[in-house]
Amino acid sequence: MKNQYPILFALFLFLGACNTPSQEPITTVKAGVQKAPAYAIVIHGGAGTITKANMTDEKEKAYREKLNEALEVGENILKNGGTSADAVTQTIMIMENSPLFNSGKGAVFTNAGINELDASFMDGKTLNAGAVGGVTNIKNPILAARAVLEKSEHVLLTGKGAEQFSEEMGIEQVDNSYFRTERRWESLQKAKAAEQKTGDISYDNPDYKFGTVGCAALDKQGNLVAGTSTGGMTNKRYNRIGDSPIIGAGTYANNNTCAVSSTGHGEYFIRYAVAFDISARMAYLKEDVATAASTVINKTLVEAGGTGGVIALDKFGNVAMPFNTAGMYRGYAKPGERVVKIYK
Length: 344
Ligand code: ASP
What we know:
- The chain has an 8-stranded mixed sheet with strand order 6-5-4-8-7-3-13-14.
- The chain is an alpha+beta fold and 344 residues long.
- It contains 9 helices and 14 strands.
- The chain has a single domain (27-343), classed as Glutamine Phosphoribosylpyrophosphate, subunit 1, domain 1 (4-Layer Sandwich), CATH 3.60.20.30.
- Helix 4 links the parallel strand 5 (129-135) and strand 6 (156-158).
- Helix 8 crosses helix 9 (289-304).
- The termini are far apart.
- Bound molecules: aspartic acid.
- Residues 46, 209-210, 212, 230, 232-233, 242-244, 263-264, 266 line the site of aspartic acid.
């Protein structure tokens, strides 16, 4: 009997050690020991030449209010135990329905004077994804992107087919004129006049894009989801589609690494697979989300000449919002924390 005490003591220590991780999931990464918050949500409303000098107080207030409203909607879903998929969808819809952003209502115009919209959605748990490109009648393209993920065998549907699919899924359709705002119409006229003078389509002109919206969320179940929605670039032709509906460029999510949404000069984001590259750096190089996102935006893209930014969120709720432009509409919320920013 006496000899059994050391064995029992060892067993007690062993069970104690086994028990701790399951009660308190703590994981060690490069940045130190981290514990995920209950939830986290991060958004962007586009990157560009957004400076205090070219902003009125009134406009700034309107942007801040809308970004706060979008965060509020997403945060409430997450706080109440809702999914990151629902938080991303509803948050993006707030911004799609606002004329302030280049997505949904307020989207920029094509050379032909219409609005062609792109959106994508990715689930970090399953790596399933859905996207629509070049759609002209879907009121909230993010709903169509999510439906492609959830209700089709495909990842990317474009044009008339995407519209037909979304209509069959019961998603609201509108006349193309619904998306029109005078501000974006004027930008098209300016872009065309400048193009006639210089022969340059000047996609880098800050007036001609920016205002794409995106969201990444982490729910209480630990699932990451990302989504992006845009009107693309002013004066675009030939059914040009940018990075926003391209999985790995405009949007990416993987529960093992991070969720990312991009905004900026789409051609560069496609060529440098920006959203995937951030995730890959975390997976292969064991970089933390801030290092990975900043390296891709401030080094890889800057060296290539690509302008823009991303929002990125890891499974621990760490947020990164790097951009290499003057400003980016952005913000995040976690339990007890809310941040909305515009300038550098
Ligand atoms: N990335 C978008 C596109 O190239 C535009 C933007 O984010 O401003 O279509």
